[in-house]
Design goal:
Blueprint lengths: L18 E5 L4 H11 L3 E6 L12 E2 L2 E2 L2 H4 L3 E5 L5 H12 L3 E4 L5 H4 L4 H7 L4 E6 L14 H7 L2 H4 L17 H23 L7 E5 H6 L5 H8 L16 E5 L5 E5 L3 H10 L14 H6 L1 H12 L4 H10 L4 E3 L3 H6 L1 H5 L3 E6 L3 E6 L10 H4 L11 H8 L5
Parallel strand pairs: 1-2, 1-6, 2-5, 6-7, 7-8
Antiparallel strand pairs: 3-4, 9-10, 10-11, 12-13
Length: about 400
C-alpha cells in the first residue's frame, strides 16, 4: 500500500499547475475542489481557525472526522480569520498567485469581508471566481438561507421520490447531499471551462461563475419543463418504475432484499420472460412493443414479482445475468466495498491516512490512460492548518 505522497511531488495529472483557492465550508465548494484536486490542481483550502464545520460531522477516530479523509484529500489546508485584517491580506496574497477561487458563502458575504469580485480582480484581473449558493447571486430569493435538502425540494427532485398515491409519509431524500454534490460538479466544470478561456487568451479577463443548488437540481428534470409548457403536464411520482419503459422496476426477493430489473427492449424482454419461466408472455400481442408493455405494466410487474419472491436476490440476479438481462441487487455499502468489480477497478481502495489509519476511499470518478486511481490520491484530508508553513512561508515567502 503506497504511503501518502509528498505535496511537492504530484503525479502528472491533467490539472497539474492550476492553483485554486477554496473559501468553502460544508459540502458544495469543497466537493468541487475535491474533484479538481483529484485531477491534479493545487487546491489551497482556507479554513477558519477552528476548521471547516464538516470536520465535526459523522464518525470520528481520535477526534478526526472519517469523512474528511476523503472530503479534504489532495488539498493544502491553511487557517485564517477572514474577519481580521491579517487574514484578508493573506487571502489577497494567495489570490494574486492563483488561477481560480471557489467559494460558497451566502451571497454578499464575500463582499462584506472586502473580498468581492471587484476587490479580487483588482489584485488579479485574470482570476476565475466560482460562486456556489442556495439560490444564486441575484433574484428575489438571493438572500434566503438554503442547504442541500432545500435544493432537492425546490428543484423538483423531492416531488418525484415518493411512491404513487402515498400521502402518509413525506417523499424521502436520496440519502446523500445530492444538491451540494451536483452544484459542486457544475462549479468544477464551469471553472475548468473558464480557466481554459483565460489561459488561452493573454488579453482575457477573469470570469465570475454563478452556480446555485436549486438550479443544479432543476437542470436534471429532463423533458418535464417543455412538457408542462406545451401540454400542462406535471410529472407525478413513479416510485421505482419508469413511466416510459416497461418492464423496468425493483422487485422483492425471498430474502427481503430487492432486485432492480430493466427489461426495456423487445429482445431483452423476450430473454427476461424466458428466464422467469413465462416465455408465452413474449409472444402475447399485448406486450409486443414497449408502448403496449407500458399500458399493461401492472400485469408484467406482477409476473416478475411472483418469480423474484421465490428466490434470494443474489440467486435471481445470477439467473438473469446468465440470460443477459440487465439487473442488479440494491447494493448497500457493504456490497460495494466487497464487490470484486469495485475492487478490480479500484473504485474502492485502501489508503493509509496518518490521522485515522488504513481507510477505504472511493476512487475519483474519472480515469486517464497511464494514471491509475491510486495516483489521484496524493494525500488524505489533513488537519486544519497543516500546511500553514508551506503556504505562508514557502509559497508566499512571508516571515513567521
Amino acid at each position: 500500500m503506497p504511503e501518502t505522497k509528498s505535496v511537492q511531488d504530484p503525479p502528472p495529472l491533467p490539472l497539474t499547475g492550476l492553483r485554486i483557492v477554496e473559501l468553502g465550508h460544508y459540502i458544495a465548494a469543497p466537493f468541487a475542489t475535491r474533484l479538481l484536486a483529484d485531477l491534479g490542481a493545487e487546491v489551497i483550502k482556507v479554513e477558519p481557525p477552528e476548521g471547516d464545520p464538516v470536520r465535526g460531522w459523522g464518525s470520528q477516530v481520535e477526534g478526526h472526522a472519517v469523512w474528511f479523509s476523503v472530503h479534504g484529500r489532495n488539498k493544502l489546508s491553511v487557517t485564517l480569520d477572514l474577519k481580521s485584517a491579517e487574514g484578508k491580506a493573506k487571502v489577497r496574497q494567495l489570490i494574486a498567485r492563483a488561477d481560480a477561487l471557489v467559494e460558497n458563502f451566502r451571497p454578499g458575504q464575500l463582499e462584506r469581508y472586502g473580498l468581492g469580485p471587484a476587490e479580487l480582480h483588482a489584485v488579479n484581473p485574470r482570476l476565475v471566481i466560482a460562486r456556489v449558493s442556495g439560490y444564486g447571486q441575484d433574484g428575489p430569493y438571493r438572500d434566503k438561507p438554503a442547504f442541500g435538502a432545500i435544493g432537492e425540494a425546490m428543484g423538483g427532485l423531492r416531488h418525484l421520490t415518493a411512491h404513487p398515491g402515498q400521502t402518509d409519509l413525506p417523499p424521502p431524500r436520496c440519502g446523500v447531499s445530492i444538491s451540494d454534490d451536483l452544484a459542486g460538479m457544475y462549479a468544477a466544470m464551469a471553472l475548468v471551462a473558464a480557466c481554459w478561456q483565460v489561459k488561452g487568451d493573454p488579453q482575457a479577463k477573469g470570469r465570475v461563475i454563478d452556480v446555485d443548488l436549486v438550479g443544479s437540481v432543476f437542470s436534471l428534470m429532463e423533458g418535464m419543463l417543455p412538457e408542462y409548457g406545451l401540454f400542462g403536464w406535471v410529472r407525478q411520482p413513479q416510485g421505482a418504475a419508469i413511466k416510459t419503459a416497461a418492464p423496468t422496476n425493483t422487485y422483492p426477493c425471498a430474502d427481503g432484499k430487492w432486485l432492480c430489473i430493466a427489461g426495456n427492449s423487445d429482445l431483452i424482454f423476450r430473454r427476461l420472460m424466458a428466464a422467469i419461466g413465462r416465455p408465452e408472455a413474449a409472444s402475447d400481442p399485448r406486450f409486443a412493443t414497449n408502448a403496449l408493455r407500458c399500458e399493461h405494466v401492472g400485469e408484467l410487474d406482477g409476473m416478475i414479482a411472483d418469480w423474484t419472491r421465490t428466490l434470494p436476490a443474489a440467486e435471481a440476479e445470477a439467473i438473469l445475468e446468465k440470460a443477459e438481462v440487465p439487473c442488479s441487487r440494491l447494493y448497500d455499502m457493504k456490497d460495494c466495498a466487497e464487490d470484486p468489480h469495485f475492487r478490480a477497478r479500484e473504485l474502492v481502495m485502501e489508503v493509509q491516512d496518518p490521522l485515522i489509519g488504513r481507510v477505504l476511499h472511493p476512487a475519483a470518478p474519472f480515469r486517464f490512460d497511464g494514471i491509475g486511481p491510486r495516483d489521484m490520491v496524493r494525500w488524505t484530508g489533513p488537519t486544519a492548518g497543516a500546511h500553514n508553513d508551506h503556504v505562508f512561508k514557502e509559497l508566499l515567502g512571508n516571515a513567521p
